[in-house]
Amino acid sequence: MLHIKCPHCGLRSQNEFSYGGDATVKRPELNKEVSDQDWDNFVYLRKSPRGKHLELWQHISGCRQWIKVERDTLTHEIFTTLKANEEI
Amino acid sequence: MQKYSVFNLIKNAFKGHKDWEVAWKDPTPKSEYDVVIIGGGGHGLATAYYLAKEHNITKVAIIEKGWIGGGNVGRNTTIIRSNYMHDENGLFSEFGMDLWRNMSQDLNFNVMFSPRGIINLAHSDAQMNTYSRRGNSMRLNGIDAVLLNREEVRKIIPMADFSENVRFPIFGGLMQPSAGTARHDAVAWGYARQADSMGVDIIQNCEVTGFDVSNGKIFGIRTSKGDIKAKKIGLCVAGSTNILAEKLNMTLPIETHLLQACVSEPIKPILDNVVTFGAGHFYCSQSDKGEMVMGGDLDGYNSYAQRGNLPTLQHVLTEGIAMFPFLSKLKMLRTWGGIMDMSMDGSPIIDKTHIEGLYLNCGWCYGGFKATPASGWTFAHTIAQDKPHELNEGYSLNRFSTGHLIDEKGLGTKTWIS
User: CB-side exposure of A51: number of CA atoms within 13 Å?
Assistant: First the structure.
């Protein structure tokens, strides 16, 4: 089982969290001309690396905040966790 | 090639089974091939076989990092079906069903295809309506489908929980009687043996480390056993697709996730169909050895680990016990995991790429095993003719940007959401 250190609540079991995918994906800015390719990149295309992966989780059965987790997708080692508005 | 038959079996029995030919050779890679298939799983082996058989292209190599049958073709729950609603998936899978029915004869290898029928259970009126719609769509595409009511389901699987006060009562189910199971390892071995006999080089323990691409054209690959030139290269590596895509500077609509399966201790025959739970994600069949073969949800986060996590297994088996209460009495024999190439609409990709000579086969999500023959057949056609067959035209790589998604499950872009 994964143990994720929520930056708001501390170390908790994986069962309290739900997964939100790649955290490095940026939504195209509002009120600007957005090409189809930009939308494609944002909605569908993912690097899905083997190794370090910065991802979103929601502490759904806890503080309900979205957080960022840097995790290894091969070993499941968690390196750091951040608040959603923090950059690594 | 030595034919497998009862006569040969008896003949070899007198010689103490010492003179059987090897099923496939262990060649050193040549410096150049017409076609190189990366990935010696079911799909890669089938592709090489159909390239040789249907298109007379025999100067082919299969490059496999591990060993034949060590990936998802040896890790799945062996279910074969074509119970899809959308035309692209239904017609493609039903074409595959015909290949499955003839596979043992075609490959001269008993793949133990067992068309025992699959039942998707329904647990509400709304779900019965949905299944009725799916069943009708299937029948319009020539696929057999039978809508069963509660009593009809009870006759087939009386050991399911039909008590009155359950959270998810069984309202009925949708059955595809021609669906079934097959011996997964035999599929890999059968394709490997036939491909080898037609001149395909199966190169195991050989990792692809890079690609030789210039001016938008591919010329070859770099491997741990040296450089190999090829006019055409097919990528057929399931959960490892993104690793190779990175080496090609490609970003794909694919995420790699982990799917677990498990088997119980062997018990006497009780279940002679494949049954899926309709209020969650759980499926179950009984192997010829008597083990209950079970699986369900993804672990739910990107993973290349090839081993699973207990919370998901517990969640999946809770659903299993809700459906078949007797499962709670069984001991677990084995659990394991495989890494899935989850596409963004839940449907696969078999297409050319923007690099000339590079072809892509990926995105099989939960359903790679049953697609093995149809995937190999259409991928071989796509490579040989340099254009998709009408069966896999819909499985294009650019359908995500053009909006022609095949969203069978209605999950949108996050097929990994449980």
Answer: 5
| Cα R_g (chain A), whole angstroms | 14
Residues of B within 8 A of A21 (CB-CB) are 255, 302, 414, 416
Q: Is residue A7 part of a domain?
A: yes
pLDDT of B418 reads 58
Q: If interface means Cβ-Cβ distance under 8 Å, which residues of chain A face chain B?
A: 1-2, 14-15, 18-19, 21-22, 36-37, 39-41, 43-50, 53, 55, 71, 73-76
> Do the chains contact at B305 and A74, CB–CB below 8 Å?
yes
What ipTM was assigned to the predicted interfaces of this complex? 0.96
Q: Find, among B343, B175, B332, the residue nearest to B260 by Cα.
A: B332
Residue A11 within a domain: yes
Residue pair B230/B36 in contact by the 8 Å Cβ criterion: yes
Residue A77 lies in a domain: yes
How far is Cα B87 from Cα B243, in angstroms, rounded to an integer? 31
CATH code for position A73: 3.30.2270.10
pLDDT in tens, B77-92: 999 999 999 999 999 9
Residue with tokens 């062996």: B78
Q: Which residues sit opposite B121 in a β-bridge?
A: B173
Report the domain count for chain A.
1
- Per-residue pLDDT tens over the stretch B89-105: 999 999 999 999 999 99
pTM: 0.96
With respect to residue A70, please indicate whether it lies within any of the assigned structural domains: yes
Sort out which chain A residues have CB atoms less than 8 A from B310's CB and list them: 1
Cβ-defined contact of A76 to B303 (cutoff 8 Å): yes
Q: Which residue of B has its CA nearest to A69?
A: B301
Q: Do B309 and A40 touch (CB under 8 A)?
A: no
Determine the structural domain holding residue A7 and report its residue range.
Answer: 3-24+40-83
pLDDT tens for each residue of chain A, 88 residues long: 899 999 999 999 999 999 999 999 999 998 899 998 899 999 999 999 999 999 999 999 999 999 999 999 999 999 999 999 999 8
Neighbours of B212 (CB within 10 A): 15
